[in-house]
Fold each of these.
Amino acid sequence: MKLRALLIAIGFVTIAGQAAAQENPTPILDSYTHEGVISCYGSTCHSRQSATGNNVRQNEIITWQDQSDISGAHSRAYKVLLNQKSRIIARNLGIGPAHEAKECLACHSDYIPEEQRGERFDISEGVGCEACHGGSENWLTSHYAPGQTHEQNTTNGLYRTEDPVARAKLCLGCHLGSEAPNQFITHRIMGAGHPRISFELDLFTNLQSHHDEDTDYRTRKNAAGGVKTWAIGQAMALQRQLELFSDPVRGREGAFPELVFFDCHACHLTFSNDPDWRPTWRANPDRALGPGVPVFNDANLIMLKAAVKTVAPEMEDELRQAGIRFHRSVSSAGGGSYQSATGNLLGMAKNLSERMAAEEFSKSETLSIMKTIVNDNVTNRYTDYSAAEQAIIAVDTFLEALLAENHISYEAATNMRPSIDAAYDVVNEPNRYNQNRMRDAFKRIATQVNRL
Ligand code: HEC
Ligand code: HEC
Ligand code: HEC
Ligand code: HEC
């Protein structure tokens, strides 16, 4: 217990220290020249054919470019703007060619102002190295010098991608939205044909990873565990969602609130004249709303509540009540001022982002959150596939984290794969999402989690 308190105390110190050092804005808003991916090339730099570097792998460009794998997605981000799907989206929106439209380039490239583009910078490289690591103007030639510290590099403008809080701010910009110009997907863009975006910080970090958190890494940087990264990601996604929703421009579309913040299935349901037809609407205890109202997408809030139940139980009830007040104020007459309810929930999300960043998640805490997420009393909140999707990704992330920390055997993890895949299957096609099937899938997982 004492040791734990100490760890938390140290956690707070490093977080405070990082917050003080981390003044860097996200790369799209930095003020440095971006020199382009070509400046990272070279066999003594980042384009070796295999991971043979001493400290870093040095084949990062090869991973980033891999056309056969998800890890190459960012190098393809600009190219997809030239495909048929993008042409349809851009035509429906009437914005001209997608690969020239600011509405698309803000996320599908390193879209910094003209005057910050170095001589060799090329927008068609897509989401290049500096879109995440920051404009290299002041660190390109010095960052690998012997004795150069990570602190010195970040002072020179290298973005702190290793810090899960800074990383969440960065990734959420394109994978949820941000205050940067045009870095936002509206329901209008979705209606024009843009695919739905799903994101979870830890899983997505792993999917695009081009680094090893080995011994030398840990001497240079702090490495946060998977569950902590997940928890910070959930709190920061809720925070970002509420910030954008309460923004007078982003949060509204004419007489309507911006629909992209809402539970898609609150509107995109079917109805029928068949006398045997019954509505698919289900009561949701953490919303306290009746049928027939649009509902804020609370997938991240539900996940955060599951984490809070275990690591900050004294806040559990307050967060739940703040969530209910928020839902009622947004969606139902007489629910009170939604500005104040949004501000209140946003404040809690901010506190919890810091709280999660100071937590270390033990095996028993990890299992406890996992059990909450698959428990029948919580799966009744997954009325929309996006909450169900977050839940199944969480189970997946937690299992990987337990394995990485040697808390469970490889065999135990492999044994759970088929039921996890079955649950992924339920959210694969949003039009066929069925909450009862999801609950059954989670019941099977719950039995297995109880044995871990
Ligand atoms: C807020 C950031 C953002 C904006 C703005 C944005 N996109 Fe995207 N787009 C994404 C992300 C993130 C994905 C990947 C979604 C996933 O797989 O989770 C994506 C995926 C796509 C895909 C599918 C790619 C594939 O591999 O199949 C197309 C096509 C696309 N976007 C076109 C556009 C067009 C056209 C515009 C402008 C109208 C646009 N996007 C604006 C972030 C954005
Ligand atoms: C989508 C964002 C993103 C892009 C694009 C990206 N990186 Fe990274 N990079 C990360 C993250 C996140 C990490 C892991 C955390 C860390 O240590 O910074 C990382 C880690 C690294 C590391 C290892 C650092 C270490 O200390 O071991 C190197 C080197 C690196 N990236 C180089 C590159 C190069 C070169 C490119 C372009 C080809 C690139 N990255 C593109 C996000 C990105
Ligand atoms: C400048 C915008 C931008 C930033 C910043 C960004 N991404 Fe992306 N990301 C995209 C776009 C656009 C796509 C879709 C590209 C495509 O379909 O080829 C994408 C795709 C991905 C994919 C592949 C998803 C899939 O379903 O195929 C992963 C994984 C991913 N990003 C992880 C991350 C992580 C982790 C971070 C933060 C370290 C991050 N991204 C930061 C724009 C961005
Ligand atoms: C408050 C109700 C509401 C919510 C919530 C909502 N939508 Fe919509 N959606 C609409 C309306 C209204 C249209 C326009 C229908 C039309 O053009 O006739 C639409 C159209 C669409 C279309 C175009 C469909 C087509 O075939 O033309 C897509 C795609 C879409 N929405 C996706 C989503 C996604 C994804 C979400 C969740 C993030 C969502 N919607 C949330 C009401 C909603």
Note: The two ends are 23 Å apart (CA to CA).
Amino acid sequence: MATEKLDPVTGRTTTGHEWNGIEELNTPVPRVVLFFLAAGILFAIGYWLLMPAWPLGWTYTKGLLGIDQRNVVTRQVEEAAAERNAAWAEKLTATSYSEALGDEALMHHVRETGRTLFADNCAACHGINATGGPGFPNLAAKSWLWGGEPETIEETVRLGINSTNDDTRVSQMPAFGRDGILSRDQIGSVVAYVRSLSGEASSGVDEAALSSGREVFAANCASCHGEDAKGNREFGAPDLTDSHWIYGGNLQTVYSTVYGGRQGHMPNWGGRLPPTDLKILTLYVYSLGGVTP
Ligand code: HEC
Ligand code: HEC
């Protein structure tokens, strides 16, 4: 049985073990070691609670912080995509229309983003495919009121037509009947004449009515729609010889147009959409249904 005794040099007790005269001092484990041991255990428990840690067979402890590597990766991928988007949008800002149209990679982004922008801002009036409807022109038809060059389209969209903008494009089809400019007979004949120009049914209309309609047209309508009725982009007056109608080509509708006049309203987007969005929309509209202006 070992017996403890006091070591005369250090003043500590010994463990009582003795090997050939060598005795072992009874020194406690240093506090700092105990401290780090305790800190390590606390850290481990904290980590298990906060982070994904223990496998539980079909699942695992998720941790209170909700950190998930899958989410982290998804976010990084999204950030990278956003950076790429910003890169092409920035490129577009610095690119002229003709350069952009020649850049297929850029136009790919423009068409994708343009479709969304158009759906959000324009489709309510022009339709999701931009083909319009009664009162709203078909933008894919290339039958332009104001012109189909990108710069012209941008100006139309920026300023609007009969809009609240000070510099708005202004157009008006006068009310020839209501304002007493033409008699009912004159309107009847000019309507027949106009409908004959685009091949809308003119059966039952005699030559005499058509020729008097032609005279009424030359005197009252040609100033805006042109001698040949092909329209005038200076006044936003539509081509009356093609098959595209804003309001409609049937007898009743054309009569109403000439009798009561028309004035379409297109909002101005200059203050509402950032310049890059205007550019994207312009290129989108321009390239609808082929790229001939
Ligand atoms: C509130 C309805 C409305 C909305 C929304 C609208 N437009 Fe229009 N837009 C019109 C009308 C109406 C006209 C024709 C005006 C007229 O009859 O003179 C028109 C005409 C145009 C024209 C002129 C076409 C030509 O032949 O010169 C362009 C281009 C156009 N819109 C593009 C757009 C774009 C792009 C947007 C979305 C940013 C948009 N519009 C949103 C009603 C609208
Ligand atoms: C002051 C210029 C002006 C004169 C004069 C004028 N128009 Fe117009 N006309 C317009 C404008 C601008 C529009 C487009 C209105 C709109 O879209 O809001 C239009 C539209 C029309 C339309 C509708 C076309 C469609 O696509 O639905 C018809 C039809 C028409 N005009 C016939 C006539 C006839 C017939 C006369 C002569 C009796 C005449 N216009 C005289 C400016 C004029």
Note: Residues 171-174, 176, 190, 194, 220-221, 223-225, 235-238, 240, 245-247, 254, 257-258, 262-264 surround heme C (ligand 2) (CB under 6 Å).
Amino acid sequence: MLTAASSVLEGAAPSFTGSAACRTCHPAIVVDFFRNPHYKTQAIAGQPPELSGCEGCHGPGSEHIAAKGDKTKIIAFSELASRAVLGNCLRCHAESLGRSQIRRSQHSLAQVACNGCHSIHGSKTAKYLLAREQRDVCYGCHANVRAQFSQPFKHRVNEGFMTCSDCHNPHGAQAPNWAMGSRPRMVDAVLGNEEPCMKCHADKRGPFAYEHPATRVDGCGACHTPHGSAHTRLLKRPAVFTLCLECHNGLGSFGPQGDGIRTTPSSHNMADPRFRNCTVCHARIHGSNASEKFLR
Ligand code: HEC
Ligand code: HEC
Ligand code: HEC
Ligand code: HEC
Ligand code: HEC
Ligand code: HEC
Ligand code: HEC
Ligand code: HEC
Ligand code: HEC
Ligand code: HEC
């Protein structure tokens, strides 16, 4: 095994110098470091040098120092491919982020690595070392989503009442068991494996004696656009009945699709505007404990 001393003597592999040696040339970074959550890796006694302080991320510094700051002789994140960044950070963060299968997340597959959102030395947030306030980090690449949250009806993300990570896990999310057929879009699961919506809209959670399969199987997105909408209640369609008729349409008591979905009964005269306000009568549209037809 190489000791620090022998490697210097032989001019072989670079060795660990400890964080204090970086101070001469990077004073601001070293002085600020005690406020960084990563200072823990330096403060805890007995950490191996490759997991401690500056060199815990940047690797052994002796040759970089001997060469008066040659950046090819140190791990410089500005030069690393995204896979290498992931690998570096996951030496310590694999356990907490492994659950989200970060290596297979859409961000990782699109070469967006940790430093696309986090900044170790230049963070602007009190928590989580984000490069900027969370929504601004995300809008940096997802500019179109800002417009969705500026619609007349929306979740108040732009106003600061909610964040993207209330619904998404930017580190990735496994395919959920609701809305099985659709892409997961890194939508986070809560309470075991439910849509994140249930965290806040617990009254929609059920279980109900009479479930509306549209909610239970297809998911909230069958009728709502989660970011924002031009229509009240974040509905996908301007009029409720057009939404319902997407599934409850056709002739006969079951529609022509052969999917077992009931058509609106003949008692419902669609020419009569009264019948178009489906949820005036079907008031418990998300599920009911009292009425099979969700009437109460
Ligand atoms: C948790 C991993 C980690 C630790 C610990 C760490 N750095 Fe960094 N360092 C980075 C990353 C990632 C970057 C790329 C820029 C960023 O994310 O802020 C970076 C960038 C730098 C830069 C380039 C200048 C800049 O601000 O972009 C210098 C110099 C540097 N680090 C020195 C240090 C020193 C000195 C220490 C110890 C006091 C240290 N680093 C500790 C990860 C780390
Ligand atoms: C003798 C002065 C000196 C010391 C001591 C020194 N550095 Fe540097 N370092 C530099 C200079 C100069 C640069 C800029 C090189 C360039 O831009 O080409 C640099 C660049 C870096 C970079 C690359 C930043 C980037 O991404 O562009 C990192 C990382 C870094 N130093 C980390 C460290 C760490 C960690 C230590 C302590 C183990 C350390 N340095 C000690 C002079 C020094
Ligand atoms: C697409 C943006 C993005 C990427 C890429 C990303 N993060 Fe995060 N990360 C966030 C956001 C946003 C939060 C704050 C989440 C919250 O507010 O609950 C966070 C929180 C964290 C936390 C603290 C909370 C927790 O879940 O443990 C750690 C640690 C973390 N990230 C590490 C990493 C590492 C390591 C990588 C790369 C392997 C990475 N992140 C990649 C956006 C990102
Ligand atoms: C040597 C181990 C180690 C490495 C490598 C490492 N981290 Fe950490 N990281 C930690 C520890 C320890 C904490 C503090 C955890 C705590 O406070 O419980 C932490 C905390 C964090 C946090 C959460 C900060 C908060 O406010 O909760 C983020 C974000 C983070 N690291 C990102 C990164 C990124 C990005 C990289 C790669 C550039 C990285 N880490 C590399 C050990 C490491
Ligand atoms: C550095 C650029 C970048 C940043 C920052 C970023 N993303 Fe992404 N994001 C991407 C790319 C690239 C993809 C994959 C291509 C795509 O599907 O749009 C993606 C995909 C996604 C997807 C899946 C899209 C789909 O169609 O399935 C979601 C959701 C997402 N990002 C949310 C976020 C959130 C939330 C944040 C902030 C915490 C964030 N992103 C920050 C670049 C970024
Ligand atoms: C109220 C929950 C919620 C919040 C808050 C939220 N999202 Fe989403 N987002 C979703 C759901 C659910 C989907 C999946 C929609 C689908 O598959 O049709 C989605 C889809 C996406 C997509 C892929 C589809 C598209 O429209 O491009 C991106 C990108 C995205 N979100 C980014 C963000 C960003 C960035 C933020 C914060 C600024 C954010 N989301 C906040 C629930 C949310
Ligand atoms: C972090 C909490 C939270 C999460 C998660 C959340 N919501 Fe909301 N939602 C709210 C709040 C608060 C309002 C009230 C509107 C406002 O912010 O002014 C709201 C409003 C709504 C409305 C409109 C209600 C009205 O009276 O106009 C719908 C529909 C809705 N949410 C559906 C969803 C769906 C679908 C999801 C999951 C994709 C979701 N929500 C996730 C907090 C949340
Ligand atoms: C079958 C279509 C459909 C599905 C699926 C659906 N909703 Fe709704 N939702 C509606 C309609 C229609 C309204 C407006 C009711 C009205 O006219 O008062 C509504 C209203 C709401 C409201 C505001 C009024 C209230 O009752 O609190 C919230 C919040 C809401 N939905 C959340 C959700 C959540 C969360 C999910 C997923 C668990 C979901 N919805 C699934 C059709 C649906
Ligand atoms: C995504 C498809 C979908 C949408 C949209 C949808 N439903 Fe349903 N609905 C179903 C399915 C599937 C069933 C169960 C099969 C059946 O009974 O037709 C069901 C059952 C019902 C039932 C109970 C039928 C019974 O006798 O058990 C009523 C009432 C109903 N839906 C009303 C509505 C109303 C009102 C709307 C609009 C707010 C609506 N549905 C939107 C798919 C949908
Ligand atoms: C004036 C009240 C009222 C309105 C408005 C209304 N319904 Fe109904 N609906 C009922 C009643 C009561 C029943 C159960 C008795 C029956 O079959 O007529 C029912 C039954 C149903 C059923 C179950 C049919 C079956 O075969 O069991 C469906 C599906 C349905 N309605 C869909 C809709 C849709 C879609 C709309 C809007 C276009 C709507 N309803 C508007 C009162 C209403």
Note: The pocket of heme C (ligand 3) is lined by residues 86, 89-90, 93, 96-97, 102, 107, 112-114, 116-118, 128, 130, 134, 163, 165, 170-171 (CB under 6 Å).
